[in-house]
Amino acid sequence: VKEQGRNGFSFYSPEMNDYVLGRLEVEQQLRGALEHNEFCMHYQPIYCLNRKKVIGAEALIRWNNPSLGLVSPEQFIPVAEQTGLILPIGEWIIREVCEQGVRWRHSLDEDYRIALNVSPRQFRDGQIVPVLLRIFEETGFDPSCLEIEITEGLLVRNDDSTAQTLSQLKSLGISLSMDDFGTGYSSLSYLKQFPFDVIKIDRTFVRDLADDPGDQQLVTAALAMAKGMGLKVIAEGVENQFQMDFLASAGCDALQGYYLGRPVTAEEFQEKIIPPAEF
Ligand code: C2E
Ligand code: CA
Ligand code: CA
Ligand code: CA
């Protein structure tokens, strides 16, 4: 146990190579975080292989707390889900992203997309559609520039209201993307049941592409299947030229990863990423 911050403790976890903060401490600090302006959105470029340029970004939340320091979303998003804090935080994220999207409207291609992560809890309270509609109206953001990323966690319950919400989002012109594709148990059956437009191949399948023939086959098969279903494929976690070349020749549509660009602030994205990047 290592002391950290004024009144908190954190535990070292070797697998994560990171400090796992006490849950109560996270919860306590999270309650004041919106009010104290501790969140910030970062944007990671999504690079289109066909057009050889950046066609959008994934929005990723960052939390900098005075006593906890930078806390990874993998640590605080689950706490936000459990406590319901994800509802106000999620709404803040949507507004932030839509306001930014409007500012970028003229500097990005007309059909640019911003990808937004939405947690299952945000769906379950039944407010996601009205919240989105209100924010589109307030900001003037075009819903067809929004891609909503969801994970299997949402679909496991598979109730009518989930299906209904997803088709409402589609009818607003929003694209639906299955995040972390391949990591769950039922990705394939969900693709059949729900109106997805995009799959994002999880970075655990991209990581070892150079020396794992099994991963190569898996990615090739996933791409063939996605094409057959008329879906677009984005690969996550691209960190080197080998992965980029492999995914390009396998027919991937777009790439995301440190090799193409790390998540950066909106200002950095505007300065460094928007002027056409060539690879
Ligand atoms: P995710 O949706 O799968 O997001 C991709 C994660 O991979 C991000 O981590 C990103 O920084 C990281 N990444 C991108 N390229 C590379 C790469 O080349 N190599 C490696 N090793 N990692 C890469 P991040 O930002 O820490 O987010 C972690 C997770 O937290 C996200 O996973 C998502 O599930 C959740 N999250 C982040 N932002 C939000 C948000 O605004 N709302 C919600 N509900 N969840 C979020
Ligand atoms: Ca995501
Ligand atoms: Ca992902
Ligand atoms: Ca993930």
Automatic annotation (TrEMBL):
Keywords: ATP-binding, Cell membrane, Kinase, Membrane, Nucleotide-binding, Phosphoprotein, Transferase, Transmembrane, Transmembrane helix, Two-component regulatory system. Residues 23-277 form the EAL domain. It is found in: Cell membrane. Its main location: membrane. Coiled coil: none annotated. The keyword Metal-binding does not apply. The keyword Manganese does not apply. This is EAL domain-containing protein.
